[in-house]
Specification:
Keywords: Plasmid. This protein is α+β, with helices and mostly antiparallel strands and about 300 residues long. It folds into four domains: about 30 residues; about 55 residues; about 80 residues, SH3 type barrels (Roll); about 90 residues, no CATH class. Helix content is about 35%, strand content about 25%. It has a five-stranded antiparallel sheet with strand order 8-7-6-5-9. Strands 11-12-10-13 form a four-stranded antiparallel sheet. Strands 1-2 form a two-stranded antiparallel ribbon. α3 runs antiparallel to α4 and α4 packs antiparallel against α5.
């Protein structure tokens, strides 16, 4: 049975039909191989496409959208970030520079690498990464374990790799058991291919013993990596040489650590209310960093590194 049709006669100014055909062509409405204004009008009536002027974005709105897109990408919601960027590209009046910026977001490889790596991790498939570090050096890592972790408001790729040539002398000296671990930014990945070999069970790690005193005894928030958490309200803190003893109890945390970089950044914020008790390598590394900071500010120290 044929569908009943209605006829609509329009009086159009010269050139309007051509404009409608152009719009129909852009939006994909055709009759056979020719653009169809009738199909375009039908789609408008069915509210399948929006009509009207593109919406205007003030500088405040643009700033808010940029921040929202960045936060979504940094927290792993790449698809959602691309959805917002595409909506703005399709519907808004944009300056050329902003349009180019949003196009770069839409065409980013971040989502592609994330999907590939998720599949390799799921299949326990070793792989090779071509990576450009923060200094512009191109490196190749043969990866035998990987996990995606959240550090300071964004996701990173933590890997166990065969290569050790790029490891700093400090890391070799203070953390020799962790020299196969790397923490990579997704946006610096240039390429990934599968490799043969065995998949490991985990990253290498060390057990770190931390001691919290003062207000941090109750304020410390446990982490997933913590494997022991003991509060002794009657204990006297164990001070380092020459340190002032602060009474009021002690909280002792034991944590699995695979990248000391993030731990050091964390405990700097705790100041004198947090102390690394063990292992000695990490303790001496942090101690040396504090000495160098004091020297930068012309504070004399007489404590050699042990």
């Amino acid at each position: 049975m044929s569908t009943k049709k209605e006829t609509l006669t329009l009086s159009l100014a010269a050139g309007t039909k051509a404009k409608l055909e152009e719009i129909a062509h852009e939006l994909g409405f055709f009759w056979g191989k020719s653009p169809s204004p009738s199909a375009l009008v039908t789609a408008i009536a069915n509210r399948e496409i929006a009509t009207g002027e593109p919406f205007y974005l003030s500088s405040d709105r643009i700033k808010a959208l940029r921040q929202a897109i960045k936060v979504l990408i940094d927290t792993g919601y790449v698809t959602e970030a691309e959805t917002i960027a595409r909506l703005v590209l399709d519907k808004a009046q944009l300056e050329p520079t902003l349009r180019q910026e949003l196009l770069r977001i839409v065409n980013t490889h971040l989502d592609k690498w994330r999907l590939v790596i998720d599949e390799y991790i799921s299949n326990k498939q070793p792989f090779e990464i071509l990576y450009t570090n923060s200094q512009g050096q191109e490196l190749i890592f043969n990866v035998h374990f990987a996990q995606i972790d959240f550090h300071e408001k964004r996701f990173y790729l933590n890997i166990w790799c065969e290569e050790t040539e790029d490891v700093s002398e400090d890391n070799k000296k203070y953390f020799p058991s962790l020299i196969h671990n790397r923490c990579l930014s997704f946006e610096r990945i240039q390429g990934i291919i599968p490799k043969s070999g065995e998949w490991r069970e985990s990253l290498d790690h060390i057990q770190v013993h931390l001691q919290f005193t003062g207000w941090m005894v109750k304020a410390y928030k446990p982490r997933e990596e913590d494997i022991d958490d003991v509060i002794d309200e009657d204990a006297i803190p164990e001070p380092s040489s020459g340190a002032r003893v602060v009474r009021g109890g002690v909280r002792k945390i034991t944590r699995q650590v695979f990248n000391p970089f993030w731990l050091v950044r964390e405990i700097k914020g705790y100041g004198r209310n947090c102390q690394i008790i063990a292992p000695s390598g990490l303790r001496n590394y942090f101690r040396q960093e504090l000495i160098e900071i004091c020297q930068q500010y012309d504070i004399e120290t007489n404590f050699p590194v042990r």
